[in-house]
Design brief:
Radius of gyration: 20 Å
Order of helices and strands: EHEHEHEHEEHEEEHHHHHEEEH
Distance between the termini: 65 Å
Largest sheet: 8 strands, mixed
Helix content: 25-40%
Number of strands: 12
Strand order of the largest sheet: 4-3-2-5-9-7-10-8
Length: 325
Amino acid sequence: MIDLNYADLVWDHDENAHAEYMNNLAPIVLFTYNRLDHTKQTVEALRENLYAKESVLYIYSDAPKTETAAEAVQAVRDYLHTIDGFRGVHIILREENWGLARNIMNGVTQIVNQYGKIIVLEDDIVTSKYFLKYMNDALEIYKGSPRVMNISAYMYPLATEDLPEVFFMHYGYCWGWATWKDAWSHFEREPEKLIQEFTKDDIYRFNLEGAVDVWQQVIANEEGQLYTWAVFWYAAIFRNQGLTLTPRTSLTLNVGMDGTGEHCGTTNLYDSAVNMDVIQYFPLEIQELPLARARHRLFFERQKQSFLRRLASKGKNSIRKLLQP
């Protein structure tokens, strides 16, 4: 693999190039709703980032879905108006409830069309202090490479031996990500169209050779059981033979897998140690790393095995209870 060394990044070592780079940092877009504690964790970690003071932050605050949510939404909004530590903070208060998916799709489209690039966070994503540097470096390095459609700061807790510091995957991630206007232009939320166009082989590869059933989310959206966006971003990447740059060790942690998030249960299966170091190398050979794909399959297959063991254990416990006098 051909690598670009951190020491070779021109904008970190040439005064004029650095000034131009810093004046053109990607806008950060944060989507919030009614979780004050999670939002505070996200903002406070982001504010500690290198480049935070030079970055513009846009915050989309969704309106309450029900009267019972109104107080919590207002508490978040009161907090948003106290945020500082960035070059600028712009708060967009939704006057009606958009829901997470519509809010993200609309907000990302607005900002990426305005700036040409974007960094995206939800209100439960806690970042490494070098998250913004990694994102902006990657956006600059790969801006002329159309196959690179997505930059992810998150990585599953995979087995990491022999994996490089960052690598490419033919996959989608949404827990701290970045992209460009041209790449996002391929996004469309049309589940019926995907179902008509995807072959059995497409679905098999979409599901990482059967290791995980991501395709079921498309079916659930088409049937009206779900209204989500992230699976369709992955589908856009997949259909265009796109790639996502991903780190070996995650630069984000999702603290919302505690039952409070939309479409999220309670689990720690996806918790990763957060990398607090600067990313030193970027691959210049733009192709998927087969070893990384194999490690993804292994991770998801182990999750399925763990789930089946837990299910079997619950079944045994239920039988024992039935047999008790």
